[in-house]
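Renewal narrative, Specific Aim 1. Our central claim is that a sequence can be written position by position from structural information alone. The example that follows is taken directly from our test logs and has not been curated for this report. It begins with the structure tokens describing the chain, in the order in which they were read.
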């Protein structure tokens, strides 16, 4: 069968903007996108640039956007449209500059401070150690799309891998969590789940970020807006058996007059539109059953 393949080409040194080029190729059963790219380069256009190495979904080099989704070319059957990974500068064609990616991984200190303790079991890492650093999760990340300073799902998942390691000394573990509290850290994730969807190794970076947040709260880092939101949500559900949306903002901003004045105009506009529920609604029936569930989850 002969198919037409559309590839987004771009050489920043020569081209003002990316453009599409179409190649036609006879394909066979079981052919992958990487197989097709290699044939196109060898048989039709030697200028085509892309990365690959192991061809076994281990090294992560061949990650790219295929039909709108971030995938590994070596394990994806042939389709029609291929583009470079989003959220990364293009070096040429399908090869992107991964410098910022590696910089963020390095920023979370990807090594142990003390390897003399007993090793953690693999189950304790929740599969985050399976990451092959392909960058697909960062390319799919909606936060990284608008804030290039965000550490990103790969680096944060790697951070959890070391937080979960029993060989890491307590002070070093606390320091790791403290370093992730500020802007661009763990609380910036919006839980869109795209990183989980595109990960070729089922690392589930978003779940690792959620576990980082739990560890941070347990360690006493409770003053960030994200931590206050989680704790306030839980407290209100425990008290009323359901969420009290009117009181929730007050749980997040606390006693800060400055923050209250900042959100007050929004509250007034919502009130005019009938979008503010009454804060004094009664608890639902049997809220103690909800409290019991929350306590069991905490344990």
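The sequence written for that structure reads:
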């Amino acid at each position: 069968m002969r198919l037409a393949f559309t590839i987004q080409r771009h050489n920043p040194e020569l081209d003002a903007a990316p453009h599409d080029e179409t190649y036609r190729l006879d394909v066979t059963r079981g052919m992958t996108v990487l197989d097709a790219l290699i044939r196109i380069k060898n048989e039709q256009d030697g200028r085509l640039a892309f990365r690959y190495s192991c061809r076994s979904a281990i090294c992560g080099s061949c990650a790219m956007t295929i039909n709108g989704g971030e995938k590994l070319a070596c394990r994806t059957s042939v389709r029609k449209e291929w583009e470079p990974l989003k959220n990364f500068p293009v070096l040429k064609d399908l090869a992107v500059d991964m410098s910022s990616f590696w910089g963020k991984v390095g920023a979370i200190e990807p090594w142990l401070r003390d390897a003399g303790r007993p090793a953690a079991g693999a189950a304790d890492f929740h599969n985050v150690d399976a990451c092959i650093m392909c960058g697909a999760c960062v390319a799919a990340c909606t936060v990284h799309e608008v804030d290039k300073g965000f550490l990103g799902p790969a680096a944060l998942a790697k951070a959890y891998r070391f937080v979960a390691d029993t060989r890491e000394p307590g002070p070093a573990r606390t320091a790791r969590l403290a370093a992730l509290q500020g802007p661009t850290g763990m609380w910036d994730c919006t839980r869109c789940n795209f990183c989980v969807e595109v990960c070729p190794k089922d690392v589930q970076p978003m779940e690792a970020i959620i576990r980082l947040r739990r560890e941070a709260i347990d360690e006493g880092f409770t003053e960030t807006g994200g931590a206050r939101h989680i704790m306030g949500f839980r407290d209100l559900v425990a008290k009323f058996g359901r969420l009290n949306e009117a009181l929730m903002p007050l749980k997040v901003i606390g006693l800060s007059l400055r923050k209250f004045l900042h959100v007050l105009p929004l509250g007034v506009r919502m009130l005019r539109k009938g979008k503010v529920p009454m804060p004094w609604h009664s608890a639902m029936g049997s809220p103690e059953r909800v409290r019991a569930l929350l306590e069991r989850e905490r344990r």
